[in-house]
């Protein structure tokens, strides 16, 4: 019985220490000293950014009303280094402030060509921005003539490097002389190499694990001002770099994306496995970019009643200095057929154009992700600009990007270890019940055996001779002694 009690105590002590170890290991809060804080500031898995451009092959015919024909060229791949800078605990340690820095380094071995050499013919975004700005002005004809003298037409040919990282545009250079603060250069990723997207303040998750990584403010604002409704201007969820643990299949995860100037959401799609680790795949449904007729919550994303596009596209000009920039998924994936049919060369495909996140449901760790988005320009007839008189309204694709990451082997090993400990602890109650049953069975067996060995009252004592004399005495009275009977 003493051994049984010692065994129970020993096993309980081991499991108790296991629980303490797991509690220490499972610290998922954004505070100094926690196990996730350093990896949150400096994510170890490598991130790759791929750029694909659409080269128009019939620009002149397009200006005369023909359907645009494009060919996809890419990828031009860059290694993306991202880290949190100027990390500061705020509001008595319940929040953390940080800037996400990004740097890009070109990877020739993962690219189709040299971005400094390869030329792309595409829409002239600075020209379209000026035309959009001047479309209701009384001196737009003068601007049109001025653009003609500078050679700033609806289309342009530039190298990939210029289109991405910037070039001095003659039209912007002239306009900057009349518009203080206007930049002379333009690029799709202009000033984004080695920069940040503004200050974020995050919840640490210490008070509620569901708040882990949730954005409280961006650039000092708790809501946006770009759109026309409270719902559309709401900042929700994380910034896409971290998610709370204990995810469920029926929950909707929200991600605030400064590039889109809005919050998007993702729903559970299916269970997957990444490097032997189970994961839930979340992906944006069609309703994210649905028209106001399909999803009434999206009515606030209409710039105006006249500028409300259909399903699958989002005009983001309010946060792009008025430029007619339209966002979508690559090749107009999940968009209305009219956008796909308007451009020859579009072939939407779920495998190559879907945005998704593979998250481990227990820890919330990102195991694999692919963020895919396409930049388009809204082209149509603009009064006072003769080059556009034969154009039909078209959402013209410029380029799309694929920002991807897969967990590295070292981080995967840590997640597996964490999940192993988590499984042991989750079965703690069953282990204790089973252990208790075994101990009870052992106790019953020991008690039963002890009861069998106990002598009866009749056999406790007996008369026996103390010597040979007792056996020889016929009276057997003098030499009889009372002694304990010894068991044979």
TrEMBL record:
This is Lysosome membrane protein 2. InterPro entries: CD36_fam (IPR002159), LimpII (IPR005429). Keywords: Glycoprotein, Membrane, Signal, Transmembrane, Transmembrane helix. It is found in: Membrane. Residues 456-478 are annotated as: Disordered. Residues 1-21 form the signal peptide. Belongs to the CD36 family.
